[in-house]
Amino acid sequence: MLHSEPPRPLLEMRGISKTFPGVRALDNVSLTVYPGEVHSLMGENGAGKSTLMKILSGAYQADPGGEIMIDGKPLVVDGPLAARNAGIAVIYQELCLAPNLTVAENIYVGRELRHGNSRWGMIDRAAMARGCVGVLQRLGASFGPETLVGTLSIAEQQLVEIARAVHTKARVLVMDEPTTPLSSRETEHLFALIRQLRAEGLAIIYISHRMDEIYALSDRVSVLRDGAYVGSLDRESLSAERLVAMMVGRDISGFYKKEHAPYDRGHLLLSVRDVADGARVRGCSLDLHAGEVLGIAGLVGAGRTELAHLIFGGQPCTRGEVTLGDRTFGAHSPRDAIDAGLVYLTEDRKRQGLFLDMSVRDNINISVANRDARGGVLNLARGAERARDAISSLSIRVPHANVNAGALSGGNQQKVLLSRLLETKPRVLILDEPTRGVDIGAKSEIYRIINELARAGVGVIVISSELPELIGIADRVLVMREGTIAGELGGYTGQSITQEAIIALATGSQTALAQAH
After folding, report:
1. pLDDT score at 400
2. How far is 342 from 429, CA to CA, in rounded Å?
3. Cα(223)–Cα(179) distance, rounded to whole angstroms?
4. Which of 405, 416, 418, 423 is nearest to 368 (CA)?
5. What is the pTM of this model?
């Protein structure tokens, strides 16, 4: 009986190690990827995923002793050019494009066509435009080669990166958290494109913290933990329990924390009545009680973040009022809200939250530094003590408090920002996408913090696009649609908080169903 030979790996990374001063980032890691495969790479922030991919891309040099093979042949990746010439392309979370150049110029960057085929000739922009029309059409781009990249949306710019990889005849495509800035519709289009490229024989290494994406795309998943290879699972063996246990080294039966008891129904902390901004939010009301975790769900563009900004005072209300305890606000400011005990964690921690070039200690203390100042002089010893306590209580993984916040992983950056807010001793905490872009371990820590705050009587509002997260931690969920509160689940409503119920309210299908009957 004849047996077909197993496919030959396209990429093999064997015994890869990487040591930085005082830190062993990778320890004898191996990875095997086949053509026509989506191979997901998972692990907590700091597990070594990015370091491994930077070695593959030529950005880092591995320690002596390991090897990289393409089609069974050794490959020396001594720089990004060597990786590109070997058919390896990486699309990072922060896109590497020149916004002032055209699509064609970005696709051909480093490989520009010139008149007369001379390295000294003028750049032939017309030839480059003609040369990338085919790949843009193949990928279903709605823009042309002469479009300025700076005028494109994030999803369209990402497509330019993919077009550049395909145009260079990349055989291995690495995608690092590609859906973080995308809407659900843009994500679906990206998934369709990934499946198309897989069918064409590309090997795709996909890095994501989102379990639903891993299930939707992966043929196999490999897991790193603390710089070491833990193991791989094929599609048939995937489960959240197995993956998370491999990533964090422990069981996740208690992953989501809901050990508080709000339906003592604590006293009313926050009352929002008919607030609107004249644009996205069209009259919303809600109540939040002490010790309650209130979830807010909705599709992208439903007005969730805009509602949070109105409550916090980041944007003025055109109508309505916000009452916190015995204080009622009309068009108020964030300073008023913070003074009253209401704080807001932004969804964009890098641009609107953290001071990335300042130390962890200073980021933690910046909102309360004047609390223990004397005669206009900062109490640096108290600030250092406060930072040490925050680092310990929130399990922030950092070598010391003086390291810049920008050097930390996403999960640890989020916990630094959260610790700053907690130092203000809030009565109400609004968390906007608190676990976006953070790993499983950091998520678990954030859920623990939310639960402990609720147990202490703090009212917590969580805005999240991850429905399992809301279902796992929220006592009630409000669902927004087109700037209004479309419905409520959980609590005393008698309606269970389920993904189906949330989606029905968010899309209006429940209303349509009721009208049909």
Report:
1. 81
2. 6
3. 20
4. 423
5. 0.61
pLDDT in tens, 437-464: 676 777 888 888 899 899 999 999 999 9
Q: Is 117 helix (H, G, I), strand (E, B) or coil?
A: helix
Distance CA(413)–CA(432), nearest Å, equals 15
Mean pLDDT, the chain, rounded, equals: 84
The CB-based long-range contact list for 506-513 (8 Å cut-off, 24+ gap) reads 506/297, 506/298, 506/299, 506/302, 506/479, 506/480, 506/481, 507/299, 507/481, 508/481, 511/486
Residue with tokens 């700091």: 46
Whether 344 and 305 have beta carbons less than 8 Å apart is answered as no
What is the Cα 230 distance to its own chain's centre?
23
Give the whole-angstrom CA distance, residue 305 versus residue 464.
10
Supply the DSSP string of 160-178, one letter for each residue.
HHHHHHHHTT-SEEEEEST
Q: Which residues of the chain have pLDDT under 50?
A: 1-2, 252, 331, 510-517
So what's the pLDDT on residue 89?
A: 92
* pLDDT (0 to 100) of residue 252: 47
Strands 67-70 and 220-225, sheet pairing: unpaired
Percent over 90 (pLDDT), the chain: 39
Which residues, 6+ apart, have CB-to-CB distance to 339 below 8 Å? none
The domains found in the chain, sorted by start residue, are 11-248 (3.40.50.300), 262-341+426-516 (3.40.50.300), 357-421 (no CATH)
Phi-psi region of 504 (alpha: psi -120 to 50; beta: other; left: phi over 0): alpha
